[in-house]
UniProtKB/TrEMBL annotation:
This is Dual specificity protein phosphatase 23. Gene3D superfamilies: Protein tyrosine phosphatase superfamily. It comes from Anaeramoeba ignava. The keyword Hydrolase applies. It comes from the Eukaryota. It holds the Pfam family PTP-SAK. GO terms for molecular function: phosphatase activity.
Amino acid sequence: MEIKSKSQKEESKRGSLYEIAKSNKIAFLRNKQPQPEPFFFSWVVENKLAGMGFPCFLEQFITLKDKYGVGLVVSCIEEYMCPPLDMFEKTNLQSILINWADRSTISIKQMIELTDQMDEVIQKNEAVVVHCFGGKGRTGTALACYLIAKLGFGGKEAIELVREKRNGSIETESQEKFIIDFYNKLNPDKKQEYLVNENQNFLKIKLRPIKK
């Protein structure tokens, strides 16, 4: 299934520029041979929910399935950069594509639908892994929203845990604010207010309950 961001206007075929994106990723590697271990893979919820960087090799998909017990790969990336479906079919992995531009957000409605789909797989005792290109901004945003929607985390707590498990995650102020807005949408009686600190450093957010 594909969930497309309304802000995305590209009509490119899925994976049409995957090989170019793959080459750009590999260009930064010392060892450019196929590597079985997924880039920047780590668990946020042990054996259930993980994040990773852009997958370049079929061997990485095999590792996800056989070593980590992954059943679903969520691609939070532009449609034309997404790994083609045949890579998932060859390894019997489910795929969800969210056509999501770098350093941006999607709609709250889309995120609610996504976290529901992720949870369906996790409830079947299969793990879910989320990726974008670097595995930090869009990936971290989706992971934090799952913690809020399905595990009862507050907005601040979700951001802190994802960053603890995956250094550098959630890269922009708009992504932080989206996570708080997502929490508030699901918890209207326990709203949190997003405050940028005095130095405008979005990596050090302040949260407080909104007084009624």
